[in-house]
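User: My instructor asked us to take a sequence, write out its structure as tokens, and then describe one feature of it. I'm not sure where to start. Here is the sequence I was given:
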Amino acid sequence: MTFAIGGGAQCAAPCADRAGARLGPDVWLSSALARAGQIPGVRGFLYTGPRVSTGETEGPPTLAIPYARELSRYAGLLGASPNVFAAPSPTDLAGSAGESLFEQVFAGFPAPFGEGSPAAGFTPAGGARSEECGGGGGCESYYAMDSHGAEGTVRVIVLDDTTGVGSTQRAWLAAKLEQAGKIGYPAIVVGNADLNAQIAAGDPQAIEVAAILQNDAASAYFFTSPEENTKRPLIGAPSVEAFGSGTLGYVNFVKETTGSFLGASGFMLAQVHFKEVIAKAGRLPKRANVTVRLIPSIGELALEAKEGTLLRRSQAALFEGLARRPRAGNRAPNSSTVGDTDPYIPIPSNCVGTACGRGLFPEYTFSSSRPDIGDFVEQNLASPVQPSVLLDSHEETIHDSSSGLFCAYNAGTTIVTISAGGLSSSLPVTIQPGSVRRPCGTVRLKELPAQQSAEAPAPAPAPAGPAPASTPPAVPLPAPPVVPPAAVQPTPAAKPFFLPVALGSPVLAFVPPPVPTPARPTPPSGTSAVTSPVEAAEKEEEEEEATEQVSAQASAYRATDHEPTPCTSSGSCCSPRSRAHPLAAARGAGGEECGSPRQPSRRSARKSECATALVAVHGPGRAAPSAETALRVFHQTLTMLPTLLTCLVTRASAGLGAM
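Assistant: Let's start with the prediction itself. The structure tokens for your sequence are:
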């Protein structure tokens, strides 16, 4: 069975006349009541006070507190939500009127807190009004009620410690606890006073109350802890856990700057876990186990990625929740214009210090849609270098949904989400590929990336229908349509690779320059110094003179060209050279003389393999050949050009070898 419990929504000064100004305590208390009503399974809200201001000022108070208006405003805030019950606090005493005004403003609330009809699921179990005052006013306001649910019944006892817990109330408390034990109801006790603080101060009444709670098997004690959320066993009653909360009002932000901040705004969610209890005479039942969570009181929530949303593999990154309290007025001490309450609740709550062991911290969760791509892990807060990942004995990360430290395990995209106070916020986080390294390492992927298929998948075959009763006759297929023959396109004539070029003027043949004769050094004579340039001695050899006028054609040197040839039918003999010349017929009288072939010279005999190319140069008075003849000569000249170059190289090599 679950109950919502909170306190601390106290005004710093009389605030009833500012009901429409959205003061902090008004807005934050109303928001907590509304949020608790939305949580499934919550039986009711138990408010531990206080609410009415103490009227504190820098000097002596000059204005009286309007208790009637302040208490009416108090009742109006609690009455806006169903099943709300309050514990009286010292500030509810209206001077000489005592608790009478408190009883009057809450008279319309469900019994036993008020005089109205009991709330659904609750049964009054006695109290001061019905048992001591006989229904009259002006007495104390402690009461008890039983909350019934499908899991069982829990007795809720509310103390009145406005002026301390007197002997009458202590006796009543012991009786109600003993009665609940006999019928097998686990019991929780709610009050405004911090019993541990009173016991530490030596208050005898507080010591007596703690002893009753210990001896009569109270399951837990809830109280108001100003500007803190705490838990620890009662002094003198180690079996009774005491839970305190007082953060629904102003909280000094200076405490937040310390490493052991316990004042996150919120309310407690107490769950009583039933056990099998058998009531036996003279034997008290075992206490029920009670667990408490702190629900943050926030109005807006966002997620902040401190290192961005594009991470590399195995990188550790911090995320923080921007949890803002409901927007409302703040408190500024003295003449300051800066509010002393932080509008944001720290998420994650990284508490460091000895006081953290007794703190209650806001409930929130960090989650990842793909934990195999990236997840939130436990942070090593003791390390001097932050962020630092805490590893287990196997050198692996430890999952922690309350940590804002995110480890990027594998490449991909995941959605990280923070949930708190009934709100949530998400961000997409992309992890780039990379090598595996510390501090995060990697984990095995649960879902491998889908392979993109180049071809579309084949459609699924149609489901087979029921077999027919008999085979139907075959339906003749229609004749295929007659396709007319395609028209034969004539094959275009092949175009020549080289197109003839019409020459407007004769093409002049290119004559390469002769290779210079290498110089040969003169042997020293020993008579005088050499003062003139060294000249190489020319080797005397018989050269064949070229004809002054020849055609513009190159002729190859072949041995058969120098052999005797028979004379023509006309009786004239032409040399092989003139017979091999392609333009012999075109020269007419200008051709070579007929006669016996000349004997090859010693140079020709020595270099018979060298080809000689003669290029004709038209002398003065000679007419230029026709365009067709010039083009043919040009092509033949190009054909003989390799032979000419070979000859030149051969001559040059022979000259160098003779040196």
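For the description part of your assignment, you could build on this observation: The first helix runs from residue 24 to 37. Try explaining in your own words what that tells you about the chain.
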